[in-house]
TrEMBL record:
Component of the MICOS complex, a large protein complex of the mitochondrial inner membrane that plays crucial roles in the maintenance of crista junctions, inner membrane architecture, and formation of contact sites to the outer membrane. Its main location: mitochondrion. Keywords: Membrane, Mitochondrion, Mitochondrion inner membrane, Transmembrane, Transmembrane helix. It comes from Mythimna separata (Oriental armyworm). This is MICOS complex subunit MIC10. Component of the mitochondrial contact site and cristae organizing system (MICOS) complex.
Length: 74
């Protein structure tokens, strides 16, 4: 039996990295909203911690996705 080599297409790599970026955005954005809501309810009694938490989550996601760009090849 001959061993078959597994060929990884560039589209598959791009799709995988893009899926990771989208999933990361959902998780970090949701986590920021959750932490902002908790801070808003228990500490500050205002709404700005919710939007600040979401913004920080999105900045962290943006940084991570730029470091691991879907189109970048190593």
């Amino acid at each position: 039996m001959a061993k078959e080599k597994l060929v990884v297409e560039p589209e598959d790599t791009y799709r995988k990295k893009l899926d990771m970026c989208i999933t990361d955005a959902i998780i970090k954005g949701g986590g920021g909203i959750l932490l902002g809501t908790i801070a808003s309810i228990f500490i500050f009694k205002r709404r700005w911690p919710i939007t600040t938490g979401f913004g920080i989550g999105m900045v962290v996601r943006w940084t991570w996705c730029n470091r691991h760009k879907p189109g970048a090849h190593k």
